[in-house]
């Protein structure tokens, strides 16, 4: 199971089906949150998640595809697009240097 | 697919089919979505300058035909090729698409979605087969001529064989859709469109299937109801409003923001989790979708291009002159019906106490593979 320490995270990938709608919206909010930790946030279609991604945030309905495309990345699924605990979990892991796992 | 790990297992049970359908649909939608801007440019020019448009202008209207016949299918074939084999795939995808466009009586969206990736895949196989055999210094010569010869051949094949076949299929699909609309049974489409939508097949259905069919429909009728099948923001709006008034109290504060993003911003994904949390609400989405389509059918509503994202602003921008009442009626009826059914399913806020604690993990209850 892929794991990563929050302090090693340099880039967070937000994925959605088309990479043009909801992922962009989530990426905008995460960018603001993670800017101060010098972590880059990008959005992408789930089919095009880069193979070397460290952490991928996507809706739980797409998690299976994300895990298939980036098997080495930590996949953090979320349920709702605003205020999901998964967003806070990623932020605090990066801030505190905690371990993140799929 | 990689094997799911233990923590994800529960989420993935039965999800294999859905993931596969999503991925295939994702490829279809992936050819269309980056080009939506071109569809909109074409839709706006059409709505403005055709004889029945806002400011009819013969000279400007000359753009309409070539854009839908050549520009849009070529962009799709190009993008489809790029997805398979990068820049070389994109170029050969466009060349091969040209073969099915020329001589066709219908806009070749389906043909482009077939020829683009197919040509790129064949070029990829060819490139892989000869890459180790190319003598140093001859790379550019061989690269250019392998692409040119294969692409030219595929264009000829498209012109001669594939184009006519695809045209038959498109005509057949088109008359199938006409039959559905004429017999007022198009609303039944909502029975599978709405559940599929909240399973994140929304782009696959709309951009992958309905947009190409709708664009072909527009060239005949000047507008198409097919653009309204998946994109109507009404059903989702009704469900969000029901949540606002009658949903679990812990969820209510999140709804106003979601309402704005859904209805004004057009990102429908925002309401899917609210349905997935209480899967019975899918009935509200279906009822809303069906009543909206029935209204649209009766009032002869249609749009000139695809409203993407499905925002009210996008809707207004692609509504044909004189079509505002019908289009807005379809959205309003869908919203009201969806709101009424969703409110009833939420028990009008009664008995929500037992359910408030923790939202059910949606995947546990969702019926997959619809």
TrEMBL record, chain A:
Alphabetized GO MF terms: kinase activity; protein-N(PI)-phosphohistidine-sugar phosphotransferase activity; protein-phosphocysteine-sugar phosphotransferase activity
Cross-referenced InterPro entries: PTS_EIIB-like_sf, PTS_EIIB_2, PTS_EIIB_2/3, Sugar_PTS
A Gene Ontology term for the protein's cellular component: plasma membrane
Entry's transmembrane regions: none
Keywords, comma-separated and alphabetical: Kinase, Phosphoprotein, Phosphotransferase system, Sugar transport, Transferase, Transport
One GO process term, biological-process aspect: phosphoenolpyruvate-dependent sugar phosphotransferase system
Pfam families named in the record: PTS_IIB
UniProt domain PTS EIIB type-2: residue ranges: 10-99
Function (record text): The phosphoenolpyruvate-dependent sugar phosphotransferase system (sugar PTS), a major carbohydrate active transport system, catalyzes the phosphorylation of incoming sugar substrates concomitantly with their translocation across the cell membrane. The enzyme II CmtAB PTS system is involved in D-mannitol transport.
Name of the molecule in the record: PTS lactose transporter subunit IIB
